[in-house]
């Protein structure tokens, strides 16, 4: 049976990258017969220091972002990670399966810890093992993510396979990443070679799900481009990262292929393509922003939804974790 799991860190506001690479697709996966489990990974967030009150606020805001993007807390299980202790418990066991060398090769670790890894938290190093635990605690078969999580998902497969092999069981599934669509890697609006990120110091580099219509339109119109008009075909976008990014964003928002965007806008100058993109982005994102704002009026209701989701998540994860304890040889006598 198909079970989908994915997560987002509430370590800042949600961006258009999170929306197109993840949230929009999470909503699309909610079909009959498919279980969808979506998690706000607050324990991953604290691998770098977070202001406690902001973390709580951002977790609620991210939950509102999920719901406003179409994740239905009745059809999907929506919760925050720290409320289901199976994640932390399984992470410990997987810490003992994963190898230091594997973790040290993670590009996100190398990027985030930088040259000063002596001073990075132990949690930041172990981050991908907690991520594997998130997925494997549900025996999830499929994980929709953006391109930047690909290496972490390969590690998850390695950890699952090593666990199965070390204990001579066929227990954990080898999870399939789902990295699909035109916007698996949305780039910065200021630099087409850098990914759009909630942690970029420049707010101009990203579109936030909380930006109003005017701000969205301005950011797109100011987005960095080269001076040439759009080419005739997708191939012509090859060495033009900024142009390609805007075409990909357009395609993902409109729900069409980049080829179809080119068929419509071939040869268009950015002076006309950008306003068209801005209109499309505003039409698509404004209702989401409005709904987020509405949901944020009632934080107690958001907390209630997360609590309910955590109960349902726990009901799935706990028996799986008990099996794991049994497999590794722990006494469970109460
Ligand atoms: P995070 O919080 O950085 O991002 C959440 C999701 O958004 C995608 N994403 C993007 N997609 C396209 N373009 C971008 N510029 C862009 N930026 C972010 C990410 O690929 C991701 O799908 N480690 C994960 C969270 C996590 C997780 C998990 C994911 C924890 N446990 C288990 C899946 C399964 C992370 O930091 O995502």
TrEMBL record:
ATP binds at residues 9-11, 17-18, 146-148, 186, 195-199. Gene3D superfamilies: HUPs, Tyrosyl-Transfer RNA Synthetase. A motif ('KMSKS' region) lies at residues 195-199. The keyword Cytoplasm applies. One of its GO terms (biological process) is tryptophanyl-tRNA aminoacylation. It comes from the Bacteria. It is found in: Cytoplasm. Its EC number is 6.1.1.2. Pfam families: tRNA-synt_1b. Keywords: Aminoacyl-tRNA synthetase, ATP-binding, Cytoplasm, Ligase, Nucleotide-binding, Protein biosynthesis. One of its GO terms (cellular component) is cytosol. It catalyses: tRNA(Trp) + L-tryptophan + ATP = L-tryptophyl-tRNA(Trp) + AMP + diphosphate + H(+). InterPro entries: aa-tRNA-synth_I_CS (IPR001412), aa-tRNA-synth_Ic (IPR002305), Rossmann-like_a/b/a_fold (IPR014729), Trp-tRNA-ligase (IPR002306), Trp-tRNA-ligase_bac-type (IPR024109), Trp-tRNA_synthetase (IPR050203). A motif ('HIGH' region) lies at residues 10-18. The keyword Manganese does not apply. GO terms for molecular function: ATP binding; tryptophan-tRNA ligase activity. L-tryptophan binds at residue 134. Homodimer. Catalyzes the attachment of tryptophan to tRNA(Trp). Belongs to the class-I aminoacyl-tRNA synthetase family. This is Tryptophan--tRNA ligase. The lineage of its organism: Bacteria, Pseudomonadati, Pseudomonadota, Alphaproteobacteria, Rhodobacterales.
């Amino acid at each position: 049976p198909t079970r989908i799991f994915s997560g987002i860190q509430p370590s800042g506001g949600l961006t258009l990258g999170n929306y197109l690479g993840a949230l929009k697709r999470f909503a699309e996966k909610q079909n009959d017969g498919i279980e969808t489990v979506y998690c706000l990974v607050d324990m991953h967030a604290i691998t770098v220091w977070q202001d406690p009150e902001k973390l709580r606020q951002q977790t609620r805001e991210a939950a509102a972002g999920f719901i406003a993007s179409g994740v239905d807390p009745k059809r999907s299980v929506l919760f925050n990670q720290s409320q289901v202790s199976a994640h932390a418990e399984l992470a410990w066991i997987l810490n003992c399966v994963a190898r230091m060398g594997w973790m040290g090769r993670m590009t996100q670790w190398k990027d985030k810890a930088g040259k000063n890894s002596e001073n990075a938290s132990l949690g930041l190093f172990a981050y991908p093992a907690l991520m594997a635990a998130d997925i494997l605690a549900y025996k999830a078969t499929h994980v929709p993510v953006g391109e930047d999580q690909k290496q972490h998902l390969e590690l998850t497969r390695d950890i699952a396979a090593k666990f199965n092999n070390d204990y001579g069981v066929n227990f954990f599934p080898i999870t399939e990443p789902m990295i699909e669509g035109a916007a698996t890697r949305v780039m910065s609006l200021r630099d087409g070679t850098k990914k759009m990120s909630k942690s970029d110091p420049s707010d101009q580099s990203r579109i936030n799900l909380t930006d109003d219509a005017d701000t969205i339109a301005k950011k797109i119109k100011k987005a960095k481009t080269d001076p040439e008009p759009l080419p005739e075909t997708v191939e012509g976008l090859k060495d033009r990262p900024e142009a390609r990014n805007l075409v990909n964003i357009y395609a993902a928002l409109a729900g069409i292929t980049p080829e179809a965007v080119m068929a419509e806008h071939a040869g268009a100058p950015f002076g006309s393509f950008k306003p068209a993109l801005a209109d499309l982005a505003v039409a698509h994102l404004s209702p989401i922003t409005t709904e987020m704002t509405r949901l944020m009026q009632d934080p107690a209701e958001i907390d209630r939804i997360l609590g309910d989701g955590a109960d349902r998540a726990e009901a799935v994860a706990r028996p799986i974790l008990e099996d794991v304890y049994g497999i590794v040889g722990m006494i469970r006598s109460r």
